């Protein structure tokens, strides 16, 4: 990042509609008038990814004079969303996006979002906004762990937040409760349905979202559930762009480019958005900004989730244990990079179908190149966060396929052993790993017990199910975790690379 800072940086201007014309000439900015925009989308979960991805595609359409009736209202359902709301409202909901190529940075200000709804207990403002007839899409980036999925793959009806929403349908706590409440109001008023569009990294994210909304509605009002099933749509999608968290370095980079943005977003120079064309109330022409509409979303999302998202988990825990701070640094680390390349080509790619113009092995090489971009300061800590959701969602389905096919599983077993060792809470150098998972206390206890009895980790049946009864996996996992505790992470990585533990 420091290499990208300009030595003679312009004096940064505070970001707002009033200062747009005064920004440095090389910072692109909206060519459309924000006063001409009207809302058509409520987006819940205004993190960096949404602003660098979905909002950017809409901004590109607006730059072309289109989609002015599809502007975004930002929203959140958790108290911590208030901090982002305050930052964005103070700068008129504008966002500075900084595209980071390996040796350069280019900035643009986007303006597709025009307001951020209040964060309230009971979500009254959010429900009211979604109930308005002009809102035709409600989109989500609430992370993989925000879907309340039970071990069987359904909606977790035992979760306290879901139980609250069943008992209190007009004052819900969850995003799905808010959606069902808004749809109930629309149905009663005759306003018609909206499309609920998940943009999270879940295989079949549209089906998962449909299941959550319909299941919750059925426990509140069966007639409403029937109406949602018949009238609403939940398209599947695959989203892809590496977007690091924002910290002091990213804010300083924006300032060095001439803009004082309290919440700038850095991102790689690559985007992909593949969408099922299933919108019950219309949609923007995102394909004119580069999105792909197709009936084969599943193949694209399988490739991305299994190679990119699972690949992140291959790297992140080894990186944390070895005090390697970023994904790019992991790819520059000989032993960690060797693990990534071998596991990807031998144990992941064989279970990934190709898509038009791209084989699985070619996609592995593309991802390796993207992960190696030194300008993207994507931390191993961010990538390792919520491993309980990410391993179960990204890694373990591949492991099951490999076991069923009789393929090698040593590398995937090593990945799981590295996660178990990381959850013990210390790095190889003795430094502490701060809690990094909503289930950290449970994971940490299992990881510490597994030091002497490795099966204690696999006995977490809410994660592994019947995988602990798979002898090839169990034997391999036990061997790797024992080796890691006895001789260290690097020794295990070197043994894997040399086939000595196979």
TrEMBL record:
Cross-referenced Pfam families: Mannitol_dh, Mannitol_dh_C
Domain of life: Bacteria
GO MF annotations in UniProt: oxidoreductase activity, acting on the CH-OH group of donors, NAD or NADP as acceptor
UniProtKB keywords: Oxidoreductase
Domain Mannitol dehydrogenase N-terminal residue range list: 40-287
Extent of the signal sequence: none
Domain (Mannitol dehydrogenase C-terminal): residue spans on this chain: 297-478
PANTHER family according to UniProt: MANNITOL DEHYDROGENASE 2-RELATED (PTHR43362:SF1), MANNITOL DEHYDROGENASE DSF1-RELATED (PTHR43362)
Name assigned to this protein: Mannitol dehydrogenase
């Amino acid at each position: 990042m420091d290499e990208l800072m300009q030595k003679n940086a312009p004096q940064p201007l505070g970001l707002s509609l009033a200062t747009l014309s005064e920004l440095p000439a090389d910072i692109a900015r909206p060519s459309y008038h924000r006063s001409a925009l009207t809302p058509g989308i409520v987006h819940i979960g205004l993190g960096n990814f949404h602003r660098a991805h979905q909002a950017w595609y809409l901004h590109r359409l607006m730059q072309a004079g289109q989609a002015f009736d599809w502007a975004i209202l930002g929203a959140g359902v958790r108290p911590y969303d208030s901090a982002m709301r305050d930052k964005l409202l103070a700068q008129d909901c504008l966002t500075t996006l900084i595209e980071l190529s390996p040796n350069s940075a280019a900035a643009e200000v986007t303006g597709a979002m025009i307001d951020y709804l209040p964060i309230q207990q009971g979500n009254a403002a959010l429900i009211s906004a979604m109930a308005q007839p002009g809102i035709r899409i409600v989109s989500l980036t609430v992370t993989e762990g925000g879907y309340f999925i039970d071990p069987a793959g359904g909606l977790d009806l035992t979760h306290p937040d879901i139980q609250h929403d069943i008992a209190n349908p007009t004052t819900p706590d969850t995003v799905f409760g808010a959606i069902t409440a808004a749809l109930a109001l629309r149905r009663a008023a005759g306003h018609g349905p909206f499309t609920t569009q998940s943009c999270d990294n879940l295989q079949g994210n549209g089906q998962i979202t449909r299941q959550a909304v319909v299941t919750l509605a059925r426990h509140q009002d069966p007639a409403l559930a029937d109406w949602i099933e018949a009238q609403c749509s939940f398209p599947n999608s695959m989203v892809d762009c590496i977007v690091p968290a924002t910290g002091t370095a990213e804010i300083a980079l924006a300032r060095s480019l001439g803009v004082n943005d309290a919440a700038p977003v850095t991102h790689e120079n690559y985007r992909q958005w593949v969408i099922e064309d299933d919108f019950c109330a219309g949609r923007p022409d995102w394909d004119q900004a580069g999105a792909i509409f197709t009936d084969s979303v599943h193949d694209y999302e399988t490739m991305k989730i299994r190679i990119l998202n699972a690949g992140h988990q291959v790297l992140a825990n080894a990186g944390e244990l070895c005090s390697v701070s970023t994904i790019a640094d992991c790819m520059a680390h000989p032993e960690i990079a060797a693990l990534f390349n071998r596991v990807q080509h031998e144990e992941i790619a064989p279970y990934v179908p190709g898509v038009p113009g791209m084989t699985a092995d070619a996609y592995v090489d593309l991802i390796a190149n993207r992960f190696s971009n030194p300008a993207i300061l994507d931390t191993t800590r961010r990538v390792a966060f919520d491993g309980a959701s990410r391993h179960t969602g990204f890694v373990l389905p591949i492991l099951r396929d490999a076991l069923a096919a009789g393929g090698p599983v040593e590398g995937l077993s090593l990945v799981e052993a590295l996660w178990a060792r990381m959850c013990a809470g210390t790095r190889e150098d003795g430094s502490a790993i701060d809690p990094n998972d909503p289930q950290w206390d449970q994971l940490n206890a299992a990881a510490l017990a597994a030091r002497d009895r490795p099966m204690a980790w696999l006995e977490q049946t809410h994660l592994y199910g019947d995988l602990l009864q798979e002898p090839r996996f169990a034997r391999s996992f036990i061997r790797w975790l024992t080796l890691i505790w006895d001789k260290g992470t690097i020794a295990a990585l070197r043994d894997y690379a040399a086939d000595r533990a196979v």
